[in-house]
Amino acid sequence: MLSAQMTEPKQTKDMLGRSGLIPVNEALHILLSHLEGIRTATESIPLTEAFDRVLAEPVISPEDLPAQARSTMDGYAVRAADTFGASESMPCYLNITGEVQMGTAPIGEVKKGCCYKIPTGGLLPMGADGVVMLEHSVPVDETMIEIIKGVGSGTNLIQKGEDIAQGKRALPAGHLLRPQDIGLLAGLGIAEVMVTRKVRVGILSTGDEIIAHTEVPNPGQIRNINGIALAGFIQRAGGIYCDYGIVSDQEEIFLPAIRKAVKENDIVLFSGGSSVGVRDLGEQVVEALGPPGILVHGVTLKPGKPVLIGLSGTTPIFGLPGHPVSALVCFDFFVKPAIRQLSGQINEPKLPAPYVMANLARNINSAPGRRDVVRVKIIKEDKIWIAVPVLGKSGSISTLSRSDGYFLIDEDSQGITENSVIKVYLFQ
Amino acid sequence: MLSAQMTEPKQTKDMLGRSGLIPVNEALHILLSHLEGIRTATESIPLTEAFDRVLAEPVISPEDLPAQARSTMDGYAVRAADTFGASESMPCYLNITGEVQMGTAPIGEVKKGCCYKIPTGGLLPMGADGVVMLEHSVPVDETMIEIIKGVGSGTNLIQKGEDIAQGKRALPAGHLLRPQDIGLLAGLGIAEVMVTRKVRVGILSTGDEIIAHTEVPNPGQIRNINGIALAGFIQRAGGIYCDYGIVSDQEEIFLPAIRKAVKENDIVLFSGGSSVGVRDLGEQVVEALGPPGILVHGVTLKPGKPVLIGLSGTTPIFGLPGHPVSALVCFDFFVKPAIRQLSGQINEPKLPAPYVMANLARNINSAPGRRDVVRVKIIKEDKIWIAVPVLGKSGSISTLSRSDGYFLIDEDSQGITENSVIKVYLFQ
Lengths: 428, 428
Known about the structure:
Number of helices of chain A: 9
Structural class of chain A: alpha/beta
Oligomer: homodimer
Distance between the termini of chain A: 37 Å
Shape of chain A: elongated
Number of strands of chain A: 28
Helix content of chain A: 10-25%
CATH class of the largest domain in chain A: Alpha Beta
Largest interface: A-B, 108 and 107 residues
Largest sheet of chain A: 6 strands, mixed
CATH architecture of the largest domain in chain A: 3-Layer(aba) Sandwich
């Protein structure tokens, strides 16, 4: 099935001899299907460095958390049965026979008719099975307390193993470690975790007209925008980048350079193929690096149509359009999911991408059969969020910089009318 | 006005002698008002390291981008007037008298009745003022082309300075540099940017019962969860952290330690004050470090009520609740905005926080006058997103780890009923 999907786009050519365009979701499916079961190597790292890394194996709790029942309130540890029915009009009286200190095991036992003073987090002393909140007690003297609200067994306690029980799975394999997950593992005394190695992404920029951003262009030359912007997107997606700089688009120079990058990285991006010549070169090079070679050449996406997706062994190769906006849209739609997949991050159940709802400021037309990515600026007017389309040519990097996010016009739509409520995906 | 707001919470005491609770928005306003105009020092760094940093000053474009008009299509550079009215039934014919090469200035001039072949991104040659797409041309022979769709002046071009004009503000001061912004600056040839120094946040963990996560607890001891989790949240918020480890809650040890941290950081957090004793210590210490001292003690937030917010000179000090969930909620609501403000990040116009809409799986009650932060897991059922509340005590770190995000029940609500559509803010 996969190889049928793989070869299909090659069979369809448009009138210029280019491969047929396929829908974004289908292209993504083809790509990810080929990456199933492929994952970077694993490594053991200290928990203190594990933030934003992906677990390579499940973490099974080595102990109960908490190790013993603790109070969740400041108050008095009691035998709950002693307090049943206590109320403001009918209080009960308990002798204070001890006090729980933080950080040490309580001494002795709470006997019938007695209680221990206990702080939040204090270990429940023997004999007690509930805690009366400070607010529901009135001191009589230093040795006696009046209880004005009774408690049941277990009230105001966190039980042994209630947070997480010994032997239970604390976190599944493939889990991206957020700060709170690191906190949970710290609570379980886990000092090292087995994670997947960060996904390495190589970047090559090509095109005769491209120069480094630190150089002064001659007429016709332009500075390299994509290389540096892609480096930022790679880091944001959890990967690390290796920038191979600007490489000539002559095949005898470009092919060895990209071959080296494929050897040294988990994913390789090249960008700059805006002219027909470079597009053709990209196609030849990806085929030369195969099998399997080209998976997708061109998608029904605007901007981003001419994206080239291939595979050299298990290494995805992306030929991104030369126009910065197109390149960055393709990164978001195709490269980011590939980075996640190779890092072993589980997507089941997938979480939806967060958005904000806003009113569209003007009509936007779209060709049916194409997914449009429309950049917008978000402004607030009369307490309502308005999405103002930032129009400009796809060669214009400033449109992306002036935008707060984008919305999508899907393949089956011919456009969206002014004042429609749309979902805007923020760039951050 | 500010000092009235500042002292007000101190005047109101509850029945236990604690300061009165104030609403979350008011507490945030008090905090941020005191930080107005305060910002970390500036530094000049290479553009390649500027991702996710905040601009200290506006960037004015030193040149036009693009420097000259360029084609946005593969096709033919023409005098538009030559093609007026051209159609499939009534084509016009032009002589191909040149070709634009990428990376070099075009030679000669496009004369009347003539055209140059031009690639996407190629410089517009003299004489030409529009580009006919390849798709709207039919080759006659090597020297002549048939135009089947005329163009106007400026069609399929990006004009000189159209992306950004020389002398215009490319980015404002306070702008957080996203990958696309770095790309824009690279395009303008900017190699160094002036940014604010990263906000340094010191973390102290206190409480007699707290031990390092690498140690084995005796009865009554618990491992330090907050320190390591807060370090992750600080990094995510764009700050850098300095962990002072576990500090005894005896005032003669704690006060010098926090004084040192205040000296060495832009913000100081201490956490662990879940018992009354530590809460009192926190209050004393923050007053001792003043003026101005305590700004807020306790907010109408659950979890997170006992948060302590103070200021020592211009350094915000946060006493976070000892319970991990409460501590992390307080971080999100108060510490993160402070980090952003001190980094100089502009919040005008503020962007809304992105969310996903989901159906609430069960009724959730709330006390009026309090903002509840309810953790949820997001699942998909029959193509509908369902938010399932993850219930558990605020001492339970696993509730936060099992959650995908949270929703808010505001002060004026008594709860939300099952199947209501709610906004869920994802943890990432």
